[in-house]
UniProtKB/TrEMBL annotation:
Organism of derivation: Pseudonocardia yuanmonensis
TM regions (residue ranges): 18-35, 41-58, 63-81, 87-104, 111-131, 167-187
Source domain of life: Bacteria
Keyword line: Membrane, Transmembrane, Transmembrane helix
Protein name per UniProt: Uncharacterized protein
Length: 188
């Protein structure tokens, strides 16, 4: 290997290690700009569960990225069209995906579809409650759920389960950055 190839290899390695964190920070900050309370970003909590459930139900760690794209579209539609709650739509899609996963025999391993479905129920419920709560409570609930999910991301990154490592890093940074912004808005 030539010196140029070694240098390119190191840069690619650096890039592959850092792009998910940089993208997560950018999306987290962009999602939190201009918010008034946690209810505005409550669908992100539902999306965090939706992404993992999709990957588990389909038995494909890479499926997490397209699921993230679907959640972005749903959140965008929810912001653009009054009366559309993206959290409800993600819960409905998650239910369909859970049925698909069951039909495909995805009950094993227990940390796959069963655990991800339970997490989706908890996160979806938290998003729905936060969307209706007072600003102080919604901010606390959303920030808390995002921080808990950041820990979930770290665990899944360390174990190499359910989603690809890039998604786990991306989500951990996004969740942490957005939780910090929601807490700042809630406290101020």
């Amino acid at each position: 290997m030539t010196a140029i190839e070694q240098g390119m290899s190191r840069r690619q390695t650096w890039f592959h290690r850092t792009w998910p964190a940089a993208a997560g920070l950018a999306v987290g900050v962009a999602s939190g700009l201009g918010i008034v309370d946690g209810a505005e970003v409550a669908p992100v909590v539902a999306a965090s569960g939706f992404v993992y459930l999709t990957a588990a139900a389909l038995g494909s760690r890479v499926a997490a990225w397209p699921a993230f794209g679907v959640s972005v579209v749903l959140i965008g539609v929810g912001k653009a069209v009054p009366g559309i709650d993206p959290s409800v739509w993600m819960l409905a899609l998650a239910a369909v995906l859970a049925v698909v996963g069951l039909a495909r025999g995805r009950l094993r391993p227990p940390w796959g579809l069963p655990l991800q479905a339970a997490a989706m129920l908890v996160l979806g419920a938290a998003a729905l409650v936060a969307a209706q709560a007072s600003p102080g409570w919604s901010g606390a609930l959303v920030a808390g759920a995002l921080l808990v999910h950041a820990g979930w991301d770290v665990h899944h990154h360390r174990t190499g389960r359910v989603v690809v490592p890039s998604m786990a890093v991306f989500c951990a940074v996004l969740d942490t950055a957005l939780a910090a912004l929601v807490l700042a808005v809630t406290v101020v």
